[in-house]
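Hi R.,

Quick one: here's the Lysine-specific metallo-endopeptidase domain-containing protein sequence you asked about.
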Amino acid sequence: MTRIYRGQAQIESLDTYFIDALGLCRTAAGWLQPRNRNVLLDANDADATTVRTALTTYFGVQFGAGPAPALGPGDTVFVDTAQTVYAAIATALNTWTVYIEYADWQDHDPDEYASARPPVVFPDAEGNVDAGNPNSFQATWADVRNNMNRGTQSYVFMHNGLPVTVSPARDLSFRIQLNTRFRNADDMLKQETIIHEMSHALADTNDAAYADTIAQARLICAAHGAPTARDTADCWGFFPFDL
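And here's the predicted structure, written out as tokens:
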């Protein structure tokens, strides 16, 4: 992956936050893998118990009692979806070209930490739409979500009524714009912000509630109930820290 830092973001040492966010998402995706379901549902595994507790706290996932704490059908679908999303976040942060910069002063939002801009297909050297390439265009995060379940080797987007096949690692770039509030956040909140923003992009989450600490996130996500929690970016952002 190419992480390209611009302007003030190049001066500040930000790479560690992106690397840590990537690692957190990989850990979450690993626990939620369908092939690891027996481990996740092992009542005698202390680490698995911690993960199950976090799934219940942050997303309202319910497990049966007893020696085999099974998942219900609806919760199984959600856990599978969560695994796909966390794996996709890790892949995007690890293999795509990401331009990281602070927003221009006139675009700074004092209430926001960051934002993730949709990807450009076949970008120019600056990560923008290449005016000289008729197949270069601004895609949408919905385009990406429509491709996520097909793996990471190639995506197919529609452009001018025709399918365009691209390699995400080679042919896509996107931007993460940071606000001043990001600079003033603590290390954990910077990592959480990255996952939070990528959940907007890849899980189509909203901001029903905000938290600044793990303790706040646990209370807020649990209080809102499963449907809202599963649609709240901070629940996705803080969940990996409790694993």
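Residues 172-241 form one domain.

Cheers,
M.
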